[in-house]
Amino acid sequence: METLAVYTEQGLQKSNNPFDDSFALWEIKPIVGDLHGTPVEDLESISYGVVPPGYVQVKPSSGSPVSLTEGQKYFYEVITTGAPWAEGYFEIRNSRAQPTTGPGVCFGRKDGKWIRVPCP
User: Fold this and answer.
1) pLDDT-derived band at 57, boundaries 50, 70, 90
2) Model confidence over 75-103: pLDDT tens digits?
3) Rounded-to-integer distance, Cα 68 and Cα 91, Å
4) b/e for 19-58, b at 16 or more Cβ within 10 A?
5) pLDDT tens-digit profile of 28-38?
């Protein structure tokens, strides 16, 4: 796995481009570089705020990430090398993450700049 990031739904809506991680609540990356993360099939599970071996927390830059809130929707993005990427929404219900849907944010290029476009 190359990167895992978790965003609030509102933070995702503020993004300026598809690679804007400035609104991430929590982000982890491999210590030795993007192309050298643990293969997805070898990661049994990842718990929010708990950095797995071989990874470093990028966001927040220090301390623990903010707690996830009951009833709040969040967006996650998992970027991988050699495997399909994954992304989607989850909501905290009964203190557990449950898959849900969200509005999605899609970008396209126009005149050399990223712009928001309707999601397919």
Assistant:
1) very high
2) 999 988 878 888 889 999 999 999 999 87
3) 9
4) ebeebbbbbbbbeeeeeebeeeeebeeeebeebbeebebb
5) 999 987 777 88
Q: Which two tokens stand for residue 60?
A: 């927040």
Strands 55-59 and 86-93: unpaired
C-alpha separations of 53 from 10, 36, 118 in Å: 30, 13, 38
3-state secondary structure the chain: CCEEEEEEHHHHHCCCCCCCCCCEEEEEEECCCHHHCCCHHHCCCCCCCCCCCCEEEEECCCCCCCCCCCCCEEEEEEECCCCCCEEEEEEEECCEEEEECCCCCEEEEECCEEEEECCC
Q: How far apart are CA 90 and CA 92, in angstroms?
A: 7
- C-alpha distances (whole Å) from 96 to each of 38, 46, 71, 99 are 25, 13, 10, 10
